[in-house]
Write a structure and sequence with these properties.
Elements: E1 9-15, H1 20-29, E2 36-43, H2 50-56, E3 60-63, H3 69-82, E4 87-90, H4 99-105, E5 109-113, H5 125-131, E6 136-143, E7 153-160, H6 167-191
Parallel strand pairs: 1-2, 1-4, 2-3, 4-5
Antiparallel strand pairs: 5-6, 6-7
Bound molecules: 5-O-phosphono-beta-D-ribofuranosylamine.
Length: about 190
């Protein structure tokens, strides 16, 4: 694992559900020589299963009901400031953050998306790739801007779509590489000029 060039970066992760990408990020952050400390997890869904990974790893976590975008974003911004967050990672976070939030936070925000961007922004990426008879699909980590799934791509990995694949099998294959590339993308983001 890479050398840590300085103080570890404070990371917040936003999730909405299962949290398997959060789990992979926690696993990486627990390596002695990782470049990050995950210090805050926020879910827009207080019942998100992923919140359990945060509490079992003794990471501060908050389930903030999404009553309105503005109230969710204002509460989150306060926490991001309080925990001195350097980078926000979206991991299966199914809400769209406003341009105002992105501007006010003012630090990098990364997202994981289950397609080879710029292909298939938005939802139902796997069924769209299968329907179009694509030979490959994959996952992308990109910077978040106010344009949905359109920020600079940091890292991508592709998987072959077999004739026998369906949405379920493709989702499974891609999730596996998601877990692999999110930590790698963070390392790349923090270490490449
Ligand atoms: C992942 O496939 C992610 O790319 C997508 O939603 C899924 C979330 O999975 N946006 P998990 O909550 O990280 O397990």
């Amino acid at each position: 694992m890479e050398k840590c060039p300085g103080k570890k970066k404070n990371i917040a992760v936003f999730i909405s559900g299962r949290g398997s990408n959060l789990k992979s990020l926690i696993k990486y952050s627990n390596h002695k020589r990782s470049l990050i400390n995950i210090v805050l997890v926020i879910s827009n869904n207080p019942n998100a299963h992923g919140l359990k990974y945060a509490s079992s790893s003794k990471i501060k976590s908050y389930g903030i009901k999404f009553k309105s975008r503005i109230s969710f974003e204002n509460q989150s911004l306060k926490l991001l400031k309080k925990f001195n967050i350097d980078i926000l990672c979206l991991a299966g976070f199914m809400k769209i953050l406003s341009g105002n939030f992105i501007k006010k936070f003012s630090k990098p925000i990364l997202n994981i998306h289950p397609s080879l961007l710029p292909k298939y922004k938005g939802l139902n990426t796997h069924s769209r790739a299968i329907k179009n008879k694509d030979k490959y699909s994959g996952a992308s980590i990109h910077k978040v801007t106010k344009r949905l799934d359109s920020g600079k791509i940091i890292l991508q990995k592709k998987v072959k779509i077999l004739k026998t694949d369906n949405v379920k099998s493709l989702k499974k294959k891609i999730l596996k590489i998601e877990h692999e590339i999110y930590p790698k993308a963070i390392i790349k983001f923090l270490t490449s000029p």
